[in-house]
């Protein structure tokens, strides 16, 4: 926002207060919205959403498939391994056999020398199976509990939470101990590294380990927070604070889940293949694309369009302040600037004084604390959620193009083609949902700003959707 400035030869001590009144008055064509004005919300359209158990099923299939493909990258053939670990079959072809019969026998011989699953440590398989299926099984258990009455549901949920969580941790500990006994302590450090990261991010909470989406104290319906329209400034700020913590918690879960899935499904299998020769570059590329694919899937599950719409509605009630620059302090009283009050709401274009600094309202109604960095970031991020989905969809499209382009290389092994194809195929579902959410939010918020009561505010915000 720009403001008209005085000429450099003017003296502030000799100017009258009227000379600076235009700095604090609303701009031309902008009439301040009354403090009692309420933002207008457009009903969110009904569209198909992915349930929690289906989301966990897709993520479980993705991580298990990624681990299997990585094992194929490492153990695709075993001709270089010691003779004790391979199964050979000597085939003598009688002269009476035709060439077709000899070819079929040769294929049978290759099958015995191909994909020996016994080379993979069984406890590593158990470890990956427990890690990748824990959230799906826990979600299915909670689905059965939700059918019970509210009185008994709470205690049963606690029993399932700590009982199932204890069994999962016990199984993981047994697998880690068995792997430590058969290998070195370095492997134990590899396995325990994500545990340290988890404790630093979530502390000793058990719910983030068992669920991708979980509720914070507040009103939730189908694992999504609910917005309540109110004119109480304190209640609006409290709701924004709850939504801000919910968004940050989901973002931590997004980063942690995508990194852990790539770590255990891509990197840990390589740490046990110390005596196996494999293409390290291809295995590293698989880890990267698995991390990106898990990130896109988690982003779709954690941040659906309806969730961002809830935060967008809270943003319209919160509003935003912009600092007014180049106004002499001694003219504040002369310009009749009111002090900001935490109990009041201010219309668009209102000017207030807070800690000796002037601020101008940028929303239809503003109850945010002037100069509060958290409120300012929340407003900028969710005032137009379309930017979030367009950015994610663009990045996902770029990743898909790179994956497809890597298949056009001259020397690409069949197992790497399988790896790229699997991740690209599963990521296309996330790309479709991101594009769908972008189109829905774009049309929704263009309509919302078109029916806004404040004409200058509508025109000012129209540029964000062009």
Features:
466 residues, mainly alpha, four-stranded mixed sheet, two-stranded antiparallel ribbon, 14 helices, 59% helix, 5% strand, globular, disordered C terminus
Rg estimate, integer Å: 30 Å
Residue windows where pLDDT falls under 50 for at least 5 positions? 1-35, 78-97, 99-115, 454-466
Overall 3D form: globular
Instruction: Indicate the percent of residues in helices.
Output: 55-70%
Strand content of the residues, in percent?
Answer: under 5%
Total number of strands: 8
Q: How far apart, in Å, are the first and last alpha carbons?
A: 19 Å
Count of helical stretches: 14
Largest sheet report:
4 strands, mixed
The chain-level mean pLDDT equals 76
SSE run: HHHHHHHEEHHHEEEEEEHHHH
Spatial arrangement of strands, main beta sheet: 3-7-6-4
Secondary-structure class:
mainly alpha
């Amino acid at each position: 926002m720009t403001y008209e400035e005085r000429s450099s030869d003017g003296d502030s001590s000799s100017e009258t207060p009227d000379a600076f009144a235009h700095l604090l008055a609303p701009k031309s064509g902008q009439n301040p919205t009354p403090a009692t004005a309420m933002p207008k919300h457009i009903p969110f359209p009904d569209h198909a959403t992915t349930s929690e158990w289906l989301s966990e099923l897709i993520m479980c299939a993705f991580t298990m498939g990624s681990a299997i493909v990585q094992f194929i990258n490492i153990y695709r053939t075993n001709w270089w391994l010691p003779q004790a670990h391979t199964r050979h079959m000597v085939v003598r072809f009688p002269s009476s056999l035709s060439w077709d019969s000899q070819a079929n026998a040769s294929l049978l011989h290759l099958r015995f020398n191909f994909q020996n699953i016994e080379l993979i440590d069984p406890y590593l398989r158990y470890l990956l199976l427990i890690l990748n299926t824990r959230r799906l099984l826990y979600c299915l258990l909670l689905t059965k509990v939700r059918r019970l009455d509210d009185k008994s549901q709470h205690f049963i949920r606690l029993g399932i939470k700590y009982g199932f969580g204890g069994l999962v941790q016990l199984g993981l500990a047994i697998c880690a101990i068995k792997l430590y006994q058969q290998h070195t302590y370095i492997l134990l450090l590899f396995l325990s590294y994500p545990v340290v990261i988890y404790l630093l991010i979530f502390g000793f909470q058990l719910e983030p380990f068992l669920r991708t989406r979980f509720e914070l104290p507040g009103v939730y319906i189908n694992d999504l927070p609910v917005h309540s329209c109110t004119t109480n400034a304190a209640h609006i700020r409290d709701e924004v604070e709850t939504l801000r913590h919910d968004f940050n918690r989901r973002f931590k879960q997004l980063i942690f889940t995508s990194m852990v899935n790539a770590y255990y499904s891509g990197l840990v299998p390589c740490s046990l293949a110390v005596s196996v020769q494999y293409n390290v570059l291809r295995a590293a590329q698989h880890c990267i694309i698995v991390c990106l694919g898990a990130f896109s899937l988690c982003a779709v599950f954690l941040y659906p369009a309806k969730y961002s719409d809830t935060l967008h509605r809270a943003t319209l009630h919160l509003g935003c302040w912009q600092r007014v620059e180049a106004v002499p302090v001694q003219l504040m009283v002369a310009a009749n600037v009111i002090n900001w009050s935490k109990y009041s709401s201010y219309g668009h274009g209102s000017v207030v004084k807070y800690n000796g600094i002037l601020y101008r309202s940028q929303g239809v109604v503003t109850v945010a604390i002037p100069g509060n960095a958290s409120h300012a970031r929340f407003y900028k991020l969710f005032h137009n959620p379309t930017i979030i989905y367009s950015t994610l969809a663009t990045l996902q499209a770029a990743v898909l193009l790179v994956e497809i382009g890597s298949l056009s290389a001259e020397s690409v092994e069949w197992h790497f083609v399988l790896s790229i194809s699997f991740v690209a195929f599963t990521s296309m579902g996330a790309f479709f949902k991101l594009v769908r959410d972008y189109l829905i939010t774009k049309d929704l918020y263009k309509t919302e700003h078109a029916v806004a009561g404040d004409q200058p505010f509508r025109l000012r915000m129209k540029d964000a959707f062009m």
